[in-house]
Design goal:
The protein is mostly beta strands. 10% of the residues lie in helices and 37% in strands. Strands 1-6-7-8-5 form a five-stranded antiparallel β-sheet, with no helix packed on it.
Length: 146
Amino acid sequence: MHLSCFMKFRLTKNLETPCADISFKWLSGRKSSLIIRLHFSRVKDGFDKDIKLVFTQPISVVWEDESFQIFELPENLPRCESDNFKNWTYPSLVLHESKWVDLYAARMLDDESFKNHELKHFVFLSMNDLLHVLSYENPKIEILNA
């Protein structure tokens, strides 16, 4: 698998701490949606709120335990910039030139549309698990009290 560039996907201003856990719920059907809760408030001295993300009509979602690696990730992932958490991977990323995106797009689109598709591979990382999401749209973001 070829490895590509990740960029931070900013959920809120000045968020530079890891996420403890990820919860999610998939609502299937014609108006499918994916609801994700990133549990930041569980990290001691971290961001004291949780973040809810809602993807409307995402294409696919894959959850994995931190110890597996369904998708190979580069070793040089962006890190948190907070002094207490510099060794932790930033919790929300977008992968550019994802092989997973290309496989889906190639099956769903004609050749011309494939060249200009805007399908994105989001990766949400916590201390315990990862969540991969394919979507054309960015999620709606809501800051929650813990």
